Amino acid sequence: MYDSEIELYDSVMATMNMSDARDHLPEVMETARTEAVFLERRGRLAGVLVSPERYDQLMTALEDAEDVAAFDEAMAEEGPNIPWAQVKADLGWE
Predict the structure, then answer these.
(1) Model-level pTM?
(2) What is the DSSP string of 5-64?
(3) What is d(CA 31, CA 33) in angstroms, rounded to the nearest whole number?
(4) H or E segment and range at residue 70
(5) Rounded to an integer, what distance in angstroms lies between the CA atom of residue 24 and that of residue 6?
(6) Cα dihedral sign for 84, 89, 91, 94?
(7) What sign has the CA pseudo-torsion 80, 66, 44, 12?
(8) What is the pLDDT of residues 18-75, one digit of tens each?
(9) What is the four-CA torsion angle of 83, 88, 90, 94, rounded to 10 degrees?
(10) Edge-to-edge strands of the sheet including 14-17?
(11) Dist CA 59 CA 45 (whole Å)
(12) 45 vs 38: CA distance, rounded Å
């Protein structure tokens, strides 16, 4: 039903502390092109660096999931069904 997009990232993830990331930012940015980089501060996860392409994929997937959830919720609502012809007429599409 849904087309799967080409996987941009390996399943490998890099982890580094914020100070190292700051000191080696160009290398960290290059790494983020192919894998997520988890940034830690004082041993705790503080953020994740991903490429713009991966971010767009994630946002699209989130929007798609929200659309599916909204559709499922609408389909579960009680009440009479309205024929498509009536909906189009009500909206002035005919």
Answers:
(1) 0.65
(2) PPP-S-S--EEEEHHHHHHTHHHHHHHHTTS-EEEEETTEEEEEE--HHHHHHHHHHHHH
(3) 5
(4) helix 52-76
(5) 29
(6) positive
(7) positive
(8) 999 999 999 999 999 999 999 999 999 999 999 999 999 999 999 999 999 999 998 8
(9) -130
(10) 14-17, 37-41, 44-49
(11) 21
(12) 7
Contact 33, 55 (CB under 8 A): no
Q: What is the pLDDT of residue 9?
A: 55
pLDDT band at 11 (very low <50, low <70, confident <90, very high): low
Neighbours of 67 (CB within 10 A): 10
**DSSP 8-state class, residue 79:** S
Q: Residue 84 corresponds to which tokens in the numbers above?
A: 């498509």
Q: How far apart are CA 66 and CA 60, in angstroms?
A: 10
3-state secondary structure of 85: helix
How is residue 3 annotated by DSSP?
P
